[in-house]
Amino acid sequence: MACGEFELIARYFNRVTSSRRDVEKGIGDDCALLNLPEKQTLAISTDTLVEGVHFLRDIHPADLGYKALAVNLSDLAAMGADPAWLTLALTLPEVDESWLQAFSDSLFELLNYYNMQLIGGDTTRGPLSMTLGIHGMVPVGKALRRSGARPGDWIYVTGTLGDSAAGLALLQHHQRIADPAVHEALIKRHLRPMPRILQGQALRALASSAIDISDGLISDLGHVLQASRCGARVNLEALPLSAVLRDHFEHEQVMRWALSGGEDYELCFTVPEVNRGALDVALGHLGVPYTCVGQILPEADGFTLLENGKPASASFQGYDHFVKK
Amino acid sequence: MACGEFELIARYFNRVTSSRRDVEKGIGDDCALLNLPEKQTLAISTDTLVEGVHFLRDIHPADLGYKALAVNLSDLAAMGADPAWLTLALTLPEVDESWLQAFSDSLFELLNYYNMQLIGGDTTRGPLSMTLGIHGMVPVGKALRRSGARPGDWIYVTGTLGDSAAGLALLQHHQRIADPAVHEALIKRHLRPMPRILQGQALRALASSAIDISDGLISDLGHVLQASRCGARVNLEALPLSAVLRDHFEHEQVMRWALSGGEDYELCFTVPEVNRGALDVALGHLGVPYTCVGQILPEADGFTLLENGKPASASFQGYDHFVKK
């Protein structure tokens, strides 16, 4: 891009409303300079979103600006970390000012909501894609990991599962549900996932492991089991499903979305028996449901899905082979 | 990409030879967990490289792996920071194992040279591009900034200027210089720039400002002048030029490359008169030349290029309007 174009783009992103105290130098030098408060561990994650792969070509830039940050925030939530700083590397096919305005407005609205600061980035010309680098902090020794689950721990998920996949299916197939409110609710679950930052923070002292559900419960719980060297039993009838999902789709389709649809960005976490009471105190007032869906088992017991106490039908058992990517 | 393809790619990058003490958790969870040593400030920079824009389509993957990291290291060098951690978001059109092997071997060779650790990343399918997030540390209050230059300070550059642009021109126009050693030397300056990490560290206590020369001396010194609210005088006859460049190209072409060719990844820095003696002690033994090319002036004096004490010909004066990007 020409020099002037870069300056134009920079104007949309170089808007610091209030600088965080831990940011010594934000945008405008070769590096940003940051000071980590004492007794805090830094949590860093990076995610790339490519047009046509991670988001539909006709997505509204405001939805894209929100979702790009939200899915990165979800990684911080899964560690129990407090959001702090963001870097944004944006590749654009052209300079479209109305696109930039809507995208950046939406991004900054979410940044400001979490008191985050954009500390750097890069703009290049090319097919639309972006890589976000998110930085958060968590008290030393308190980060939630995938590797801490132990046999006997209870498996929980926040919110409801499968709505995002349903919303994506509606968008992809240009289908509409008669009731506009129901339709919009599912679309919104896909386009505007709510990162479970508060839940992650509340779980620091209580959960033995955590992960965010980006690829679907089977796949992501599978990562926890692998890292923790454990097995698990999940009770399908316990999976939290929204009323709109249950009322408008076939049961088998609903279960498929809930198990492996992905992009719910809910947390899946494990809690030792001794912490179950404290869990209700910690999460009860946060306004988001959380549901026990199974239990961690010894590794030798494997990973099984139960339906009313019996092994689930083969069509569900096989889902770990169809895990979507 | 299919799940298996991602696992394949991950194998090339998930090779921790020795974990840094400050890395609590590297690759393998939702976030990496890092501990910043006391009294250190974190320096973060991010850069995207897109095929056809930042590197030629026929670049060897080993050269690409080196250069992608080297240009990011150069940003740390310009702050006087010690390299520490890297994130790599890689977008690939296909899984090509020999490409991945050569790219990752070269990347890890340079990572290991600087005792850095790859702490996370992401792989997606799409047109070849990559975004690196580099993290370094610098003692509190010692970072080199663009904004510290003061009238009277002397302007220096490391190494020689213009070689990288000459190497790029040879590659782009498929030209060869008769002497293979000379040809290879210029190509190497373009493909394998040496980040001036040691020089940056040595300058922490001595330089009033610093920047790395990625876009060309005029453009990058211009950033320093803007951030420092100063003017400057640069003496063209003082510009450090390699013998190979002087001997094989027209003088005017050489000056053009030296002033605005870009991608030299040398440091441009300013030093107060009182520190000039200490500078020779600090940089003298590092094996890389450094040259005084001018002096910082009050802002009102503007930015002028002199040739043997007289204003340079109009063709050079105008170069700040042609700054390449």
TrEMBL record, chains A, B:
ATP binds at residues 121-122, 146, 214. It catalyses: thiamine phosphate + ATP = thiamine diphosphate + ADP. It comes from the Bacteria. Keywords: ATP-binding, Kinase, Magnesium, Metal-binding, Nucleotide-binding, Thiamine biosynthesis, Transferase. The keyword ATP-binding applies. Mg(2+) 5 binds at residue 215. Catalyzes the ATP-dependent phosphorylation of thiamine-monophosphate (TMP) to form thiamine-pyrophosphate (TPP), the active form of vitamin B1. Belongs to the thiamine-monophosphate kinase family. Mg(2+) 2 binds at residues 47, 75. Mg(2+) 4 binds at residues 30, 45, 75. Residues 150-261 form the PurM-like C-terminal domain. Reaction mechanism of ThiL seems to utilize a direct, inline transfer of the gamma-phosphate of ATP to TMP rather than a phosphorylated enzyme intermediate. This is Thiamine-monophosphate kinase. Residues 28-138 form the PurM-like N-terminal domain. InterPro entries: PurM-like_C_dom, PurM-like_C_sf, PurM-like_N, PurM-like_N_sf, ThiL-like. Substrate binds at residues 54, 263, 319. It comes from Candidatus Pantoea multigeneris. One of its GO terms (molecular function) is thiamine-phosphate kinase activity. Pfam families: AIRS, AIRS_C. Mg(2+) 3 binds at residues 30, 75, 212.
